[in-house]
Design brief:
By secondary structure, the protein is of the alpha/beta class. Helix content is 50%, strand content 14%. It has helices at residues 32-51, 64-69, 80-96, 108-114, 122-140, 154-170, 177-183, 199-220, 227-240; strands at residues 3-10, 22-31, 100-107, 145-149, 190-191, 255-258. Strands 5-4-1-2-3-6 form a 6-stranded mixed beta sheet, with helices on both faces. The radius of gyration is 18 Å and the shape is globular. It starts with a strand and ends with a strand.
Length: 259
């Protein structure tokens, strides 16, 4: 195994509630050695600088909502100068760290309206589309890898695990199972809980919601409002979203909208 896909979801599989219309899964692909030798040390360094992180005595795990609210252990960000320095440094990290980003988003209401007799579970549809892109990338570069997520809630975790297992066993309409099984080193989606301090999962959490909001804005026609999130998406557009290897196009590769 040489690569890993770290994933984070935004939303749920509720297909009826108006406020829960969208679900997305974002993944970052990186080589394991790049994670261990570059991503992890850099994330650990910035946490130590701003939040007095120590992996044993004072472990700090980056969590987007707590950071935005400036709640413990991120209360240092209540100081405007410190917050500005943090935003500048984390944006620099998001730009220069070695990873490829993919976000798949589904308009669940449109999906149900379009396929009234039968439709995919939204999690399965998003997972299938994301894993397809990961497997195609692995196959194109003659690499292998696995997929890691942070456990959330039993229902969510079960849906993601079942979706991943089905793809591994059956392939998709675009990729036969023998290629999926050759590229993926495990038939199971692996879960690493937050206390394990997996820096790849913390990195994908920092970009998943801004990417979700940017893709949702395309569906709704309403501009994205969060200024800091917009700066993250500008970086993803510029340097990190997956692209068509021939044309450089991002849409359909690093960004995918599902009906």
């Amino acid at each position: 195994m040489t690569c890993r896909l770290y994933i984070d979801e935004v939303g749920n599989d509720d297909v009826t509630t108006p406020s829960e219309r969208f679900l997305s899964i974002t993944g970052i692909t990186t080589k394991v050695r790049s994670h261990d030798n570059i991503i992890r040390p850099e994330i650990e360094r910035i946490k130590t600088t701003f939040f007095n992180h120590h992996p044993i005595n004072n472990p700090v795990i980056l969590h987007r909502k707590e950071i935005l609210r400036k709640e413990a252990p991120f209360e240092a960000l209540r100081d405007p100068t410190t917050n500005a320095a943090w935003e500048n440094q984390i944006l620099q990290l998001i730009e220069r760290l070695p990873y490829i980003a993919n976000t798949v988003i589904i308009d669940k209401h449109e999906h149900v309206n379009r396929y009234q007799v039968w439709h995919f579970n939204p999690y399965h549809y998003c997972m299938r589309t994301l894993v397809e892109r990961y497997v195609l990338w692995l196959n194109r570069h003659h690499l292998t890898g696995d997929v890691v997520a942070e456990p959330r809630y039993p229902k969510v975790d079960k849906a993601l695990k079942n979706s991943f297992r089905y793809i591994y066993r059956n392939g998709t309409e675009h990729i036969p199972p023998n290629i999926v099984q050759r590229c993926l080193t495990s038939h199971e989606l692996k879960f690493d809980p937050k206390p394990n301090n997996v820096c790849g999962l913390q990195l994908v959490e920092m970009i998943a919601n801004p990417s979700h909001q940017a893709l949702k804005a395309v569906f709704t026609g309403e501009p994205m409002k969060a200024a800091f999130g917009k700066r993250i998406v500008e970086i993803l557009d510029r340097t990190h979203y997956a692209r068509n290897p021939k044309t450089g196009q991002i849409d359909g590769w690093g960004r995918k909208w599902l009906p």
